[in-house]
Every structure is written in structure tokens, then in C-alpha cells.
């Protein structure tokens, strides 16, 4: 059943994104105003201080839009984000995507050379070709998330969710393929490495 639902979902999302390109340009001021309601969890400048809540500052515009559509269509489950996303129309989603993409991303301190977990994570990132989707500096590209500087707990949860199949990505099977051969120690190492990487 999942095999038939996911391609249809992707076609719907592609139609949404294509439509967003043809529509009027995003209204940054409107996006900023909408984002005031998001600040309690995601941070005043899109940099989260809340456990298990991602920083949105500097995430690619398309990535923000895709995730909100996933939440709105219940392809991505969240008791918090589901109802919020369902209240957003397409212009609001475009405006939020453009606004968060315009913000400077979080700049965490890099991992010290003695951090063996981060070193292992760096090797795993090369082995699994994370740059091929997420950018040369893990800055995020199109619908692929910014990983550099994201909260470590958020990254670890995302990897675990992709591995368990409770979360799908814009490439549908790409992250499931990446995480298939990872054990939990590998995922912890990748999360540490990405969280302490600056772009």
C-alpha cells in the first residue's frame, strides 16, 4: 500500500512546488509576522533552544515548504505541527519558507579534535555521500535539509525516524536507504558530526 501512496504523494507535492514557482513571489514581511507564532518553540530568530525542536533559520526555502506540506497532508505525523500546518494556505507556506531561508543559521562551536564521536560521524558522512544531497558544506539544497549546525537531538531523532520508517523524505526512499545499514551508535556519531559542523 505504501508503494502506491508515496508516488502519488510526491506528484502532489511536486505540483504544489511547481505551483508555488508560478504564483506571486513570497511576502517576507508576512512570513516574518507568521513566524512570531513559531518563535516560542523554534526560537525568536529561528534558532531553537527547545529540546527536539529544530532550528529553522537558514533551512532551504523548498525544504521548509515541503515539510509544512507533509505535516498538512499528514504524511509526516506530529500532534503539534499537524494542526498548525493544516491552518496554513499555500501563500502562508511560501512566505514562511522564504522568511526562514533568509535568516542566518545557527553557528555552534565546532567539535574539539578530541571528540571521537564527531570524527566517526565525519567518516560515515563521507561513506554515505551525504554531501550529494545536502550540499558540500551540509548547508541544505532545495528540498534537502540543512544539517550543519542543527540541534544534535533533532538530527538523531530524524535519523531514527527515517530508519524505522515513521518519517519519509522528499526523495521518499533515499533516507531509508542511507539509514538501513546504520546502527544507533552510527546515528549518534552522524548527529554529533553534523551538529558541530559549520557552513
Describe the structure.
This protein is mainly alpha-helical and 199 residues long. Helix content is 56%, strand content 0%. It is built from eleven helices and no strands.
CATH classification, class level of the largest domain: Mainly Alpha
Number of strands: 0
- The proportion of residues forming helix, as a percent range, comes to 55-70%
Number of discrete helical segments: 11
- How many structural domains in the coordinates? 2
Describe the secondary structure blueprint for this structure.
Elements: H1 2-22, H2 28-35, H3 39-42, H4 61-72, H5 81-86, H6 90-102, H7 116-127, H8 131-134, H9 152-164, H10 174-180, H11 184-195
Helix pairs in contact: 2-6, 4-6, 7-11, 9-10, 9-11
Keywords:
Cytochrome Bc1 Complex, Chain D, domain 2; 2 domains; mainly alpha; globular; 56% helix; single chain; 11 helices; disordered N terminus
Short description:
This protein is mostly helical.
Amino acid at each position: 500500500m505504501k508503494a502506491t501512496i508515496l508516488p502519488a504523494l510526491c506528484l502532489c507535492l511536486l505540483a504544489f512546488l511547481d505551483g508555488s514557482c508560478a504564483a506571486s513571489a513570497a511576502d517576507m514581511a508576512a512570513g516574518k509576522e507568521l513566524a512570531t507564532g513559531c518563535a516560542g518553540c523554534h526560537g525568536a530568530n529561528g534558532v531553537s533552544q527547545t529540546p527536539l525542536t529544530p532550528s529553522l533559520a537558514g533551512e532551504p526555502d523548498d525544504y521548509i515548504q515541503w515539510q509544512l506540506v507533509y505535516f498538512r497532508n499528514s504524511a509526516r505525523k506530529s500532534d503539534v505541527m499537524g494542526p498548525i500546518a493544516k491552518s496554513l494556505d499555500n501563500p502562508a507556506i511560501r512566505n514562511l519558507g522564504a522568511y526562514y531561508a533568509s535568516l542566518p543559521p545557527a553557528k555552534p562551536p565546532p567539535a574539539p579534535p578530541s571528540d571521537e564521536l564527531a570524527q566517526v560521524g565525519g567518516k560515515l558522512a563521507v561513506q554515505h555521500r551525504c554531501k550529494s544531497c545536502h550540499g558540500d558544506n551540509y548547508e541544505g539544497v532545495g528540498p534537502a535539509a540543512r544539517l550543519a549546525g542543527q540541534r544534535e537531538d533533532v538530527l538523531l531523532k530524524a535519523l531514527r525516524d527515517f530508519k524505522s520508517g515513521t518519517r519519509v523524505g522528499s526523495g521518499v526512499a533515499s533516507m531509508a536507504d542511507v539509514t538501513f545499514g546504520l546502527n544507533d551508535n552510527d546515528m549518534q556519531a552522524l548527529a554529533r558530526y553534523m551538529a558541530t559542523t559549520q557552513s
